[in-house]
UniProtKB/TrEMBL annotation:
PANTHER family: 5'-ADENYLYLSULFATE REDUCTASE 1, CHLOROPLASTIC, 5'-ADENYLYLSULFATE REDUCTASE 3, CHLOROPLASTIC. Its cofactor is [4Fe-4S] cluster. The active site is at 230 (nucleophile). Its EC number is 1.8.4.10. Binds 1 [4Fe-4S] cluster per subunit. [4Fe-4S] cluster binds at residues 119-120, 202, 205. GO terms for molecular function: 4 iron, 4 sulfur cluster binding; adenylyl-sulfate reductase (thioredoxin) activity; metal ion binding; phosphoadenylyl-sulfate reductase (thioredoxin) activity. The gene is cysH. HAMAP family: CysH. It comes from Candidatus Uhrbacteria bacterium GW2011_GWF2_41_16. Coiled coil: none annotated. GO terms for biological process: cysteine biosynthetic process; hydrogen sulfide biosynthetic process; sulfate assimilation, phosphoadenylyl sulfate reduction by phosphoadenylyl-sulfate reductase (thioredoxin). This is Adenosine 5'-phosphosulfate reductase. It is an enzyme of class 1 (oxidoreductase).
């Protein structure tokens, strides 16, 4: 698929609902060649509900970095039980994580941007890279207004980091639309959302935000806004 093909698809899907975008992706790419990566945020819970309602046989996977909140594990169980499926749980290579901790310490992510990216690479990007190497496309719950690093994303795009297609069905939804959907369909959601955490990742790298702060201000809060991605959704040097 070249750049013109992707532009044409985005023109065709411009006014399409998330359900229609997912139906297009499943029929054009095929259930076996596409998977949904969830980080268990409200957007991803909406997409999980839509995919399970469509009865699409698409793998739904998440990464257990080893640093998740207990509430994240609770949500995994609750969602599996409600929607009658099993997540595919990806985990990092334990020897690589052990070596990293032995060399740089348990709290290395606070010491420098390079060490934080090293931790994200070993715990998240490598397991994801491994999974995506068997696929033609992946589905994500990204929205354009989540952060300044996401303003240019499209419903369908070429993922330059992983070299496959990336499908973002909720790209033009705002936060209110997500929560209206969650309430309307009683979608289970992360308990920390009610405690001031709009965006939830690993426990040591996430905090609650203050009123008026950017929704991603609680992620890697000690870093500049421009640096606030773990590499899953950003072109970056994954070799560092
Ligand atoms: Fe490591 Fe923090 Fe990245 Fe999680 S978010 S992988 S703990 S640096």
């Amino acid at each position: 698929m070249n750049k013109d093909d992707i532009n044409n698809i985005n023109d065709k899907l411009k006014y399409s609902s998330p359900q229609e975008v997912l139906s297009w992706a499943v029929s054009e790419i095929g259930c076996d060649n596409i998977a949904f990566a969830t980080s268990l945020g409200a957007e991803d819970q909406v997409l999980t509900h839509i995919l399970r309602s469509m009865k699409a046989d698409v793998s739904i996977f998440t990464i257990d970095t080893g640093c998740l909140y207990a509430e994240s594990h609770d949500l995994i169980q609750e969602t599996e039980s409600l929607y009658d499926f099993k997540y595919e749980i990806l985990t990092p290579e334990s020897y690589a994580v052990e070596e990293m901790i032995n060399t740089h310490g348990k709290d290395l992510f606070y010491k420098s941007l390079e060490l934080r990216k090293l931790c994200c690479r070993l715990r998240k990007i490598e397991p994801l890279k491994n999974k995506l190497s068997s696929l033609d496309a992946w589905i994500c719950g990204l929205r354009r207004d989540q952060s300044i690093t996401r303003t240019n994303i499209e419903k369908v795009q070429w993922d330059e980091v992983f070299g496959i297609i990336k499908v973002n069905p909720l790209v033009d939804w705002d936060e209110k639309k997500v929560w209206d959907y969650v309430k309307k369909y009683k979608v289970p959601y992360h308990k920390l959302h009610d405690r001031g955490y709009p965006s939830i990742g690993c426990e040591p790298c996430t905090r609650a935000i203050k009123p008026g702060e950017d929704v991603r201000a609680g992620r890697w809060w000690w870093e500049n806004k421009e640096q606030k991605e773990c590499g899953l959704h950003q072109k970056m040097d994954t070799s560092s």
